[in-house]
What does this fold into?
Amino acid sequence: MGESVVLTRILVVVLAGGAGSRLELLTEGRAKPAVPYGGMYRLIDFPLSNCLRAGIADVWVIQQYSPGVLSDHLANGRAWDLDRTTGGFKVLHPHQGDKRGGWHRGTADALWRQAPLIREFDPEALVVVSADAVYKLDYRDAVAEHLRSEAAVTMVTTRVDKSEAGRYGVVQVDDEGAITDYAYKPDDPASDLVSNEVFVFVPDRVLDLLDELAEEADDEEGLEDLGDDLLPMLVNAGEAREYRFEGYWRDVGTVAAYWESHMDLLEADPPIDLDEPGWRIQTAGGRSAAAGVHNGAEVDNSLLSPGCHIAGSVHDSVISPDVRVEKGATVRESVLLHGVVVRAGAVVVRSVIDHGVEVGADARVGGDGDIALVGCEARLDPGQTVPAGGRFPQTSEQE
It folds into this structure.
C-alpha cells in the first residue's frame, strides 16, 4: 500500500434529499433513504453503518424531500454511535436567510448551499455519498488512498451490467487509475465501469469550484447534480482518480432492482451479509418479539423479521416485522414491509407490498410478469386493502 497516511479529520456528507420517483409508491410520503430494506433496515442504514465500521464520527445528513419518516429513524444518531458531546451527527435542511437559502436543485446545489458550514468544520477530507444503494465499504480505506494520490476527487467505481450503465456516471481509466473520461448518464455508455456515488474530495478545491459554478449558473436553474459540471471539470483538469470497489453494490432505485436485491439475500451464499460479525448493518427502531412460525406453516428460503407471525406458506421471500400471513395464505418470491397482513386463502407472488397493506381473503397479487407493487396510493379502498377475492393488478375484465 506504500507510505501510510495519518487521517485526522474526515467529514462524511450523506445526500438524502432525493425524491426517488422511480420507486413509485415506495417513496410516496417517505424519502428514498427511508425506504425499508431487508426486513429490519432502511437504505440509509448502509452508509451510516459504513461510517461506524470506519470509525468516522462526523456525519452530516442533508435532507429535503418528505423528511418526516427519515428524521424519526435518524433521531440523534445513537444507533450508529454518532451521539457525541461535540461533533458527531448533524441533520441539515434547506434554509432561508442568506444567499444560499432555498430548495436544493440537485446534489451539487445541496453541497454548495451547505458550503459555509463545511468550510467552518475544516475537514481534511470530504466524503460525499448517496443513500440509495446496498453495499459495504470502509470509507476510511477510500480516504487513505485518496490522500496518497493527491487527487482533487477520488470516485469509487464498480462494474455494472452495461445495459444499466447509462443510469450512472460512466468512467474510463488508464492503467494508473487516473480517470480519463466521465460521462453523466450517457445515452450510449462507453464502458460498464461507473461511479457508485461515493466521492472523496479535497474540500477547498471542490467548494471553490462550486462557488465558481454558482456564479456562472442561470439564476432560474442554479446548480444541478455533481455529475453535470463539477466532476467533468475535475476529470478534464486531470485531477480525478478511481478507487475500485469489487464487492457487492446494488442501486435499488427501481422497483425491479429493489426486488432483485432482496432475492439476492436469499441465495445459499448471499453476496452481502447484513449480520456479519464486526460489520453488522445497524438500524434504529423498537424491539419486537421473536418471529412466530405456527403449526402447519411452511417456510423455506426466506428471511423472517421479529414480530411476524406465519401460519400459511412463505417461500423465497423477505418478511418484515409485524407481518401476519394467515393459515391457507401463500407468499412466494415477495417482499412484505412492516405490518402487512395476508388473509387466509390469499396468494402473493413476485410482489412488493408496502407498509400496512392488507391483502384480503382469497385475493391474488402479482404473477409471472413485472413485479407488482401494492401501496397506500394504489387506488385501493380507503382501508389500504386488496379486497377479498380481488386481484392486483386488475385484469381488463375487472376494470
In short: The CA atoms of residues 323 and 340 lie 5 Å apart. The chain has eight helices and 32 strands.
